[in-house]
């Protein structure tokens, strides 16, 4: 009797039916997490690169002292930034303008005069796409920051 039970037990232990299903059930969540994390990080990297490129181009426009028709200088720079970052919706309240006058070590807010260093900075809130990422980051969005500084040129026509 014991021998027969022992034989049946060994036969059951050697039976590997369903092992593939168990292995797939164990590994599939990890594979999906890696795939979705890769997609999420690729989106974050894309947004950061787009934001930095847009800020750089907007700062290049800002140092020329040009103004779009019917707009202030800062509004012209914001319009340029929005045009150069078409896939991102940037809140104009998150855009800051600073300048460093010649010979100074302290940044001032607003536009600078020719010869000063102009800085444009933007904060952008990236909403996480996958439901498990907020558990990793501790929030449902992360803030991306980009800034660029360049020396102001002389005003056009001067």
Q: What features would you describe in this structure?
A:
The structure is a single chain. With 158 residues, the protein is α+β, with helices and mostly antiparallel strands. It has one domain (33-151). The protein is built from four helices and four strands, in the order αααβββαβ. It has helices at 2-14, 19-62, 73-84, 133-137, and strands spanning 95-100, 108-109, 117-127, 141-151. Helix 2 (19-62) runs antiparallel to helix 3 (73-84). The chain is rod-shaped. It starts with a helix and ends in a 7-residue tail after the last strand. The model has no long low-confidence stretch (mean pLDDT 88).
List keywords for this structure.
alpha+beta; four-stranded antiparallel β-sheet; 158 residues; 47% helix
Note poorly predicted spans.
none
Helix content percent band: 40-55%
- Kindly estimate the percentage of residues that lie in beta strands according to DSSP: 15-25%
- Radius of gyration, in angstroms, nearest whole number: 28 Å
Number of strands: 4
Number of helices: 4
Principal-axis shape equals: rod-shaped
Can you summarize the main beta sheet? 4 strands, antiparallel
Q: What structural category arises from helix and sheet content? A: alpha+beta
Lateral arrangement of strands in the main beta sheet: 2-1-3-4
């Amino acid at each position: 009797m014991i021998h027969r039970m022992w034989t049946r037990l060994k036969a059951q232990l050697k039976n590997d039916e369903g092992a593939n299903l168990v292995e797939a059930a164990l590994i599939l969540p990890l594979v999906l997490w890696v795939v979705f994390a890769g997609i999420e990080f690729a989106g974050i990297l894309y947004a950061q690169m787009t934001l930095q490129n847009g800020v750089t181009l907007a700062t290049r426009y800002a140092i020329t002292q040009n103004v779009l028709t019917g707009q202030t200088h800062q509004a012209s720079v914001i319009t340029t930034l929005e045009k150069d970052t078409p896939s991102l919706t940037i809140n104009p309240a998150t855009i800051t303008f600073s300048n460093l006058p010649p010979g100074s070590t302290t940044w001032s807010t607003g536009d600078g005069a020719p010869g000063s260093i102009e800085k444009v900075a933007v904060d952008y809130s990236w909403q996480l796409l996958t439901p498990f990422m907020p558990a990793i980051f501790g929030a449902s969005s992360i803030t991306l920051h980009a800034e660029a500084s360049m020396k102001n040129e002389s005003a056009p026509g001067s």
